[in-house]
Amino acid sequence: MSVRSINPTNEEEIETFEPHTPAEIDTAISRADDRFKSWRLTRFEERAKLMRAAADVLEARAAEFARHMTLEMGKPISQAEAEAKKCAWVCRHYADNAEAYLEDEPIETDASSSYVRNLPIGPVLAVMPWNFPLWQVFRFAAPSLMAGNVGLLKHASNVWRCALDIEQIFTSAGFPEGCFQTLLIGSDKVEGILKDDRVRAATLTGSGPAGSSVASIAGSEIKPTVLELGGTDAFIVMPSADLEDAVETAVDGRTQNNGQSCIAAKRFFVHADIYDAFKEKFVAAMGDLKIGDPLDKDTQIGPLAMKSIYDDLKDQTERSIKKGARPLIETQGMPDRGYWFAPQILEDAPDGSPAAEEEMFGPVASLWKVNSLDDAIARTNKSPFGLGSAIFTNDKSEIDNAIRDLEAGSTFVNAKVASDPRLPFGGVKKSGYGRELSRDGILAFVNRKTVSIA
Hints:
With 454 residues, the protein is of the alpha/beta class. The chain has helices spanning 22-39, 44-60, 62-73, 77-101, 135-147, 160-173, 190-194, 208-220, 243-255, 275-287, 307-322, 354-357, 373-381, 396-405, 438-443; strands spanning 3-6, 13-17, 105-106, 113-120, 123-128, 150-155, 180-183, 201-205, 225-228, 233-237, 265-271, 326-327, 344-347, 364-370, 385-386, 389-392, 412-413, 428-429, 432-433, 446-453.
């Protein structure tokens, strides 16, 4: 059955795609398996040359790729262009650093020589989401290809033009056929691919249920996985913080990508001493965001990506209000067509409400007053998620305590949570396991072979 690509701005059809048949899937896997046999033997210099060429393609055609992202999932065009350029950055990072990341690690033993050598393992399946259509893929693909592996991509069905763009980027850069392939398939085909002996590992960014399914299947096959799942990231503001900076970062952190980010700041805990001042500025700034055509470079908020995302967020917001959360923004009317959701702040959402317990995937912030850092940390850690966290403070002891006690894969101080090729990225608890990016990311899918020579 054909898959229709729908523009979330106006609900008009963009184009249609034909999913790959079982025979085409098998051919792609076979091609990947065959290519791995030769690709794993290439020199780092050759891989790096091709990866830098991929970065050149991304930069030269950033506007084109950005337009495809915006049309397919509604991202403001300026953010889409920045995403394409960030993908070029991760390509250059691994082109420059992969060899050092993977160099032999000598270990002194009774043997004449002993060390760990990092070797590629084979084709890796990437199951990727729609919210950052290029970045989520490149942060896997760049280290995997530089390690000597090859990639198979199962992308979200609403961003298949972006998925095909990614394959074309690697082809245009000169990567040999089979190094990176896009599979136009639904979720129902993932299990069969994971169980194929030629596929050696999997990485997934997405929802908890999707991650649990992939981990279960891969576990039954004894294949390694990396999971980056949801988040309800906390944003803590203490009295010593620069209030203007905290508010500006809070708005950016909650609304970037139309609020559809796993590492978006979602739960805001503000100390009582500055709560009223923060709240006043936060409400004003959120209410002043420019909502409009995401192809307009001045737009700050575009539509949500899909009707299902809109329906879920609307339901979560309404149920939270019914349970006692107070909406602080009088929302403006939205267009009749498209998946538009105006920014909102919900104050004092009670325990058990969606705003307190669930991931809200859109521009809705949850705000609470706290009396101490210990209170903020305790409430933060009640969440089953643990992806990122942020604290605004200039108190050294508060910084140290937050770093020590917040149950999250990262803590950013006086800055929003963000991914960076130079830093490991991932979560704990129900936000997943394993790390992407930096040295950790390239070591995720290698055979760390022990070598001992008598």
